[in-house]
Write a structure and sequence with these properties.
alpha+beta
């Protein structure tokens, strides 16, 4: 974030909570009438009558809690709803004249101020991103800035609950150890929160799925209800690498990844790539319909339990799409490969395997790289030194993207270009 977010010290927060300090919520939403309700999760905490658009709550402060205020209860139509943190002090909930209709601004205490600042920064960047005339170069910078907001926010708010919320946002991108390290940076008062406890559980499970760790078997049914185990796929001699892909038919980003999955599968299946799709769908017809509609012709399994899927829990999947690339020895060699990165990584690994095969000799002593079977794809171009077979550079074209995988600065005096 571009400005420092002010927050109270851990000592003040802990003292306030421990001595029974209270929070006060003062709301003013123009046009709102009737009753508003306060929830923590699904539990109703309190209610208040709205008079002239104004309402008020108060109660014992809890620096680790998150609550919502809404005018809807038990399925009624909602006209107003917002989240707030019941920290010691006065929390103001009011219309935000600088935001779209229906938006509110929540301020007055550290976590609430941080939340509002985060939202304002993100909305400013997104408005600029979509503005006509914004250059592609600037859009790439904005993507980086948006991607870095959760990290900066978590670092600036280790003493309040919004910092934990920011960490939750970036948690899917962290390894198990990285997540544990981030959790340890929070103040003693925050360590007591349910949310950090849940993240510790995720981190402990994720340690089992970090790169270099052995895979965990999955046993779920395919479209015909027949159990297909992940072990049976990995142990198939034809498969050098298996991508375990967690997805769902209702997940937009998952479906956006399908063309890249198909591209990698079409190019590399004959060379040893298999995909083991694990759907987090609840609806059998929608699951199978998506497979047919998008031509996802690789292994597909599901227990139709959504995010309660046992495999998703074993692999600490918090968001989808998520994937894990596993080699023939059963070790996780990469994870969360998106877009062209999947094609590039598989090509890199398959080429590395091919280098271990016997080389061919040409006249004048030139050594050529052994090419893998079904060498029409991917397009692999290599150049090698006449006397030193370890000195080379490799270009791989996968779709429209070209990638330099290796490069030695030594000038090549004599080389042969081979298409593998």
């Amino acid at each position: 974030m571009k400005k420092t977010l002010l927050f109270a010290s851990a000592a003040v927060l802990l003292c306030g909570c421990g001595t029974g300090s209270k929070y006060v919520v003062e709301g003013h939403i123009a046009g709102l009438e009737g009753t508003v309700y306060m929830f923590e999760g699904d539990s109703l905490i309190d209610s208040a009558v709205v008079e002239g658009g104004k309402f008020r709550f108060e109660g014992p402060a809890d620096i680790t809690a998150r609550r919502t205020v809404t005018d809807s209860r038990e399925g009624d139509a909602q006209r107003f709803g917002t989240m707030f943190f019941p920290e010691p002090g006065t929390v103001s909930i009011e219309d935000n004249p600088d935001a779209p209709a229906g938006s509110t601004r929540v301020t007055g205490t550290p976590a609430n101020d941080a939340s509002s600042a985060f939202r304002a920064s993100a909305m400013t960047l997104m408005d600029e991103y979509h503005r006509e005339g914004t250059s592609e170069g600037r859009r790439r910078e904005i993507e980086d800035e948006l991607g870095g907001l959760p990290r900066k926010t978590a670092e600036a708010n280790r003493d309040n609950a919004f910092g934990i919320m920011a960490l939750e946002g970036m948690a899917p991108t962290l390894s198990g150890q990285e997540l544990l390290d981030r959790i340890a940076e929070f103040s003693p008062g925050m360590q007591k929160s349910r949310e950090l406890a849940a993240l510790r559980t995720v981190a402990a499970q994720r340690l089992k799925t970090d790169i270099g760790q052995p895979y965990m078997n999955i046993m779920q049914g395919d479209a015909d209800g027949q159990i297909v185990t992940l072990t049976s796929v990995i142990d198939n001699p034809a498969n050098k690498y298996t991508l375990v892909d967690f997805w769902a038919s209702w997940c937009g980003p998952c479906m956006e990844e399908v063309p890249h999955l198909k591209q990698a599968y079409d190019k590399f299946h004959g060379q040893g790539l298999e995909i083991y799709g694990v759907s987090l769908d609840n609806d059998n017809d929608k699951w199978l319909g998506a497979i047919r509609e998008h031509g996802m012709g690789w292994v597909q399994v599901s227990d139709l339990n959504g995010f309660d899927n046992l495999a998703a829990k074993d692999y600490a999947v918090q968001s989808i799409p998520s994937n894990f690339l596993i080699d023939a020895q059963g070790r996780i060699v990469a994870k969360n490969l998106r877009g062209e990165d999947l094609c590039s990584k598989v090509a890199e690994l398959l080429f590395a395997k091919s280098r271990n095969a016997p080389a061919r000799k040409h006249e004048h002593g030139l050594t050529d790289i052994h090419r893998p079977e079904h060498h029409a794809t991917p397009e692999i171009y290599s150049s090698m030194h006449i006397r030193d077979a370890s000195d080379y550079r490799i270009f791989i074209r996968c779709g429209e993207a070209s990638h330099i995988l290796k490069y030695r600065k030594k000038r090549l005096s004599l080389f042969r270009i081979t298409k593998g």
